[in-house]
Amino acid sequence: MFNPWFIWSAISHTARLSTALQILIFLPLTLATLSTQAFLLLSLLLCVHSLIHGTMILLWGSEALSVLQVPMHPFLLLLCFNIFSSTPNPWLVTAADWWGKALTFSGPLFITMEGLSSLLVVQKLGQEGKRLVGEGEVYQFGLLIASAMAYVASAWWIVLSYPAAASSPLSSTLLGVALTAFLFLTFIGFVLRRTNIIESSGLALFIAYNVWLCGFDQKSFTDPASSYAPLLPNTQPHFQALVNFVINTLPKPVLIALLYRLTILQLASKILPTIGSDSWESEEGVDDGWNDRPVMLDHSSQIWWRWMNIFFTLVIWSVELLVSSEDDAVTKEWKID
After folding, report:
1. Which regions of the chain does DSSP assign to beta strands (E)?
2. What sections of the protein cross the membrane (predicted)?
3. 51-71 confidence digits (pLDDT tens)
């Protein structure tokens, strides 16, 4: 007989996953089939719903809310389609335009939050890795292999992205300075025994990811409507058209950046509540049901803000290396390796 708690946990987690997938599908669908204003209006409605949902979780705290919110996104999508099926209300169009401007100006803030969350997650991975090292040599060997693979993957990613990311003398200089600063901080952290290869390799992947995004500009993207195929009444063509606009409506770097931002903010939201109680203590956060909502990412991925994000994250990491305390004997032994 199945455990009721296990069944309910599976249902609640499935509900959360479905709401995230609905956002990733409904927003490109609205952009492809209607207009940018409809896309912005749906994004605004999702944001308002997210604020209401988060407030109810804060006051109520029941995981039933994750199940109850599942039909809300299809309802908002149908509402948006109904509004733009004819001439929309000028007030709604104005609200959508102002929302688009707000998202554009808040882009650097979300990129900064993404950098801080990435640093927080890689530090958590480093702490968990140090804990596993003390449980046996098998874990130590496996983590060394995984870290080496991360270093190689990040180096390959940077080399692959270099022609596009370093297209100007300034950008190539920034890339060289960023890599030099990363190597310098890594060696300093090893000497001071305040970092390890798991944390360092995670930051290497983060830098490679941002360098890759810096290689794209707005001119490399096509019109979203040009990749949309009309939905046919048959089931199979309908599914094929659905997959087509999900994959091709938004540029792949934008979709990947959206997925990364959702994931990294979600992980950071689980880590932050554990810091205040006891450093890296393994306990659940107070808001287990919080779900992030995506923001509008511009086509260029705000390239220069990406460069600033790399250096901002490295500065924060350097400050953390200087102010963190000495590690115990197990940690020291691991960092020497």
Report:
1. none
2. 20-52, 64-85, 138-158, 170-191, 203-221, 303-323
3. 888 888 778 777 777 778 888
